[in-house]
Amino acid sequence: MPRTLSAPVAVAFDYTRSTGPVLGRFLTGLRDGVVVGARTSDGRVVVPPPEFDPVTHQATTDFVQVASTGTVTSWVWVPEPVKGQPFDRPFAWALVTLDGADVPLLHALDVASPADVSTGMRVQVRWADERVGAITDIAGFEPVHDGGRGASGASLEAPSDDPVTGVITPVGLDYVYAASPEESLFYRSLAEGKLVGQRCPTCEKVYIPPRSACPADGSPTVEEVELPETGTVTTFCIVNVPFLGQKITPPYVSAYVLLDGADIAFLHLILDCAAEDVHMGMRVKAVWKPRDEWGTTIENISHFAPIDEPDADYETYKKYL
Amino acid sequence: MGKKPAAVIGIGQTHHRAKRLDVSMAGLCREAIDRALEDAGMTLDEIDAIVVGKAPDLFEGVMMPELFLAESLGAAGKPLLRVHTAGSVGGSTAIVAASLVQAGIHRKVLTVAYEKQSESNAMWALSVPVPFNMPVHAGAGGYFAPHVRSYIRRSGAPTHVGAIVAAKDRNNALKNPYAHLHNEGTTVESVLASQMLWDPIRYDETCPSSDGACALVIASEDVADASPNPAWIHGTIMRSEATSAAERDQVNPQASRDAAAALWKQAGITSPIDEIDAAEIYVPFSWFEPMWLESLGFAAEGEGWKLTESGATALDGRLPVNASGGVLSSNPIGASGMLRFGEAALQVRGLAGEHQVDGARKALGHAYGGGSQFFAMWVVGADKP
């Protein structure tokens, strides 16, 4: 058995980017099948256009159409493509200076082997079958066989009536979350129906879940303390607001429960009574899920429920607020 | 060795909105930067160094945004630093910028902070479930609501005090053309009638989700002396503490109390309520006004709500708090702290326009972040310290 518990965490969101007028002009061009650069104050044509001039710092306004053909100025071979890259077969990342531009653009070059790439080789844009106003509208570059030069250099009129103003950028991060050895002890104890914390050897405060080191004085915590499944609601809120990714359907009571004998409260759910009846000082007890649903998680405790005991005196828990 | 004098000589901010779909992140920052530079009578070429701040990267899904922003911010060839202290970042970013001048390293430092909340969803970003743990987290409101309840219990405050704060700040925002929310006719009654989101916090007692940026130009004494209306920095402070520790005071954190005490000492202030003319305090949920009034030493423990209830924190009160409308009216998270610092400076420069506090000479800018664990504050004044 490994010393610590771990579990996958996936964090993903489709971010909605506002492009602003300059990158929007570039992406509008791609959607319409042309590559748009900009002339900067030093006379160079840059693709993609920078949002602000590198010398004068003014917003970029002088847009220029460049050719869809160009020259490779440098490259690197990708023998094993990974998920999300432009091609699922080996390819080259290439810096391509398009005809009419002075600065190279980075994109994928679709050739079979590194022997088919060289600095100075002529390439052309291969457009995607369906263009939406994104950098992926250029599916990649491919070799030009006749070495021809495309039209370029024309100053552009105002952008189309339907400019691209936003792009969706899906971002997905897959982590492995690793619990500390002390937390792992806590979660494994939960799998046996027990609540185990640790006492700080210096300040003698009992932490649950245990923290590895006392947050107050830094002392490593070793001594294990099994706590009862009864405690006091110190404070709480009633969550009425639904939101993206929410795991529990509102309304629900998110409460700090101070287990008897602990010196810090943790957040859990209060059920088996009306939300408006939950109050500070209320005495509660853990309600466990059926044993066959248990794992190494605090979710083995379905929720806390009120017990038939007088409220805890405010003086007994006010220092835990 | 003492710090060298430094002053804010330029302030710029965007028109904060729920969605600024017309600009990119760089464009948003430049809108604030260009206004700050114009205010300072300066160009980007004259700036020695740039300090940028924003809240968690998950809000826009861009890791280390300072890398791709560098050229647009005019940072090519100059030192560029990024600061990150969660919600207090706008304040700590300004303090880092100020310290570069106070240490004598640079004479003209540009600092900018921003958030483009419309690119994702902050509730989602702040509530990503952690394995093995109970998925009861519900964004910042869900985090702070239990501590607001603790404050109400501890102080015995009447339950409508939060609504007084919300109505005041929303009405102040009507005088601030840059504010996100311009909700005409907000009253204590209308706030109390709004939906309970995270009981005891209501919808109208909650900050909006905004796109926006704020920028400041901070200059050394010789540069600021040539400015017609510098806001001199009288004191800066940052403090932090553990998010969770046994018996940690979540209502009035030790780091907050310590920071305030050190700030007043540095600024030579013995009675904050008498000596501060205007305060811009980070109040994302209405109840944090009385909570921070106590923590900052404007009122005794348990009595902050009395100051609010008496009207002392209104625009014409003894201690106007958030004359700009505050975080409750504009919340581009990363910029919110810098907006507090900048609005404090606007007050002592006499440039706050319709929300100017008459005769303001000394003002507080304040920010907090994380689980009330990061604090950043400054005092600015019309007079050179």
Q: Can you walk me through this structure?
A:
- The complex is a heterodimer of chains A (321) and B (385).
- Chain A has 321 residues and is mainly β.
- Chain A is built from 3 helices and 18 strands.
- A 5-stranded antiparallel β-sheet of chain A has the order 7-6-5-8-9, with no helix packed on it.
- The relative contact order of chain A is 0.12.
- With 385 residues, chain B is an alpha/beta fold.
- Chain B has 13 helices and 11 strands.
- Chain B has helices at residues 25-40, 65-69, 89-102, 122-125, 139-155, 161-173, 188-192, 221-225, 254-266, 272-275, 288-295, 304-309, 333-349, and strands at residues 6-13, 49-53, 80-83, 108-116, 196-199, 201-202, 211-220, 231-240, 278-280, 362-369, 374-381.
- In chain B, strand 2 (49-53), helix 2 and strand 3 form a beta-alpha-beta unit.
- The longest helix of chain B has 17 residues, at 139-155.
- Chain B starts with 5 loop residues before the first strand and ends with a strand.
- The mean pLDDT of chain B is 96.
- Chains A and B meet through strand 1, helix 1, strand 10, strand 12 and strand 14 of A and helix 1, helix 4, helix 5 and strand 5 of B.
- Strand 14 of chain A pairs antiparallel with strand 5 of chain B, so a sheet runs across the interface.
